[in-house]
């Protein structure tokens, strides 16, 4: 069995792969300007400048689209925590530092653009949004935050981090893209498609860097993969009332257990050939079996969710029917 590599050794082993991935990223990415995706002509002053403060009637997006976009924005707002996490788990030296700074600069555009869109189009209460931003950023974020594994806190390593972010970036890409479609509004759709493109390139970077780990340190990489999948949570879970919002987003088809399994988990596992490889031995092979069981568990979760979703939709349909019938029976005003 090959000796376990230290975190510092792993980072050094990854450097040539990181440098290659950065060069590819620069060849594929296209700079864009957040202000080009904001319908400024729809904007008007708020009360402090002699205008009108926000009123719920001004919001034009559906509940699903509005909740999803605000959740996406608040998730992006926590960028300082994400920057800190990857800086602590990677390195600010050499190619790693180049990537961390570039990734942070690109991610920062997303929050800027989403906030401008929502505030200008009055699809959000700006005061409530600012209150939520303050609380979310104050809570911070770590993939292992509040998670216990065998009595110990989730201890992150470079492999934990790069594997986690691979899944997270892909999930974020899909969430943004589906939110854009749910908005049923061309400007929002274009904006979120642009953001999704960024997230996809970020995912490709992390996915290909992480893949190298399964070749140079298979036991540690499979251990990390198992830990990440078994404890996976999106960064937005620190946003106040996350569970309620997650249900709305899931029932609305923006991001649900089936999407998570079929469009996030399985494509990455297939790209890395995790369940197909026959060269894993020892602990790596054991984790391969355990990851297969996690996939089976996720499939069961999908089936349970679909059943619960159907029951919820049926209840909502009955309530809507009763309201409509009651409205018909009410005497009209003379």
TrEMBL record:
Cofactor(s) in the UniProt record: Fe(2+)
User: Pfam families, from UniProt?
Assistant: FA_desaturase_2 (PF03405)
Keyword Ribonucleoprotein: yes or no?
A: no
**Mind listing the UniProt keywords for this protein, alphabetically?**
Fatty acid biosynthesis, Fatty acid metabolism, Iron, Lipid biosynthesis, Lipid metabolism, Metal-binding, Oxidoreductase
Does the record bear Lipid biosynthesis in its keywords? yes
Q: Outline the subunit composition.
A: Homodimer.
In the record, the note on similarity to other proteins reads:
Belongs to the fatty acid desaturase type 2 family.
Q: What is this protein called?
A: Acyl-ACP desaturase
- Native organism: Mycolicibacter acidiphilus
Traced from the root, the source organism's taxonomic lineage reads: Bacteria, Bacillati, Actinomycetota, Actinomycetes, Mycobacteriales
């Amino acid at each position: 069995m090959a000796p376990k590599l230290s975190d510092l050794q792993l980072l050094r082993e990854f450097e040539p792969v990181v440098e290659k991935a950065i060069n590819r990223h620069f060849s594929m990415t296209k700079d864009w300007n957040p202000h080009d995706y904001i319908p400024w002509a729809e904007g008007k002053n708020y009360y402090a400048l002699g205008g009108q403060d926000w009123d719920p009637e001004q919001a034009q997006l559906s509940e699903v689209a509005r909740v999803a976009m605000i959740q996406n924005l608040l998730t992006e707002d926590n960028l300082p925590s994400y920057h800190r996490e990857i800086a602590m788990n990677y390195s600010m030296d050499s190619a790693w530092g180049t990537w961390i700074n570039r990734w942070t600069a690109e991610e920062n555009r997303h929050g800027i653009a989403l906030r401008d869109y929502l505030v200008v189009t009055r699809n959000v209460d700006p005061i409530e949004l600012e209150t939520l931003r303050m609380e979310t950023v104050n809570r911070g974020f770590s993939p292992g935050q509040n998670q216990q594994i065998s009595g110990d806190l989730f201890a992150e390593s470079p492999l934990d981090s790069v594997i986690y972010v691979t899944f997270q970036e892909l999930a974020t890409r899909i969430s943004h893209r589906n939110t854009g479609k749910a908005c049923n509004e061309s400007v929002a759709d274009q904006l979120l498609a642009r953001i999704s493109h960024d997230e996809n390139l970020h995912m490709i970077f992390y996915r290909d860097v992480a893949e190298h780990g399964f070749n140079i340190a298979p036991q540690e990489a499979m251990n990390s993969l198992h830990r990440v999948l078994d404890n996976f949570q999106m960064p937005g879970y620190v946003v106040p009332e996350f569970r309620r919002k997650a249900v709305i987003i899931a029932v609305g088809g923006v991001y649900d257990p089936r999407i998570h399994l079929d469009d996030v988990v399985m494509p990455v596992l297939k790209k890395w050939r995790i369940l197909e490889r026959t060269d894993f031995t020892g602990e790596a092979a054991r984790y391969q079996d355990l990851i297969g069981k996690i996939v089976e568990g996720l499939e069961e979760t999908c089936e349970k969710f679909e059943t619960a979703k159907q029951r919820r939709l049926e209840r909502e349909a009955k309530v809507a029917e009763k309201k409509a019938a009651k409205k018909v029976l009410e005497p009209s005003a003379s």
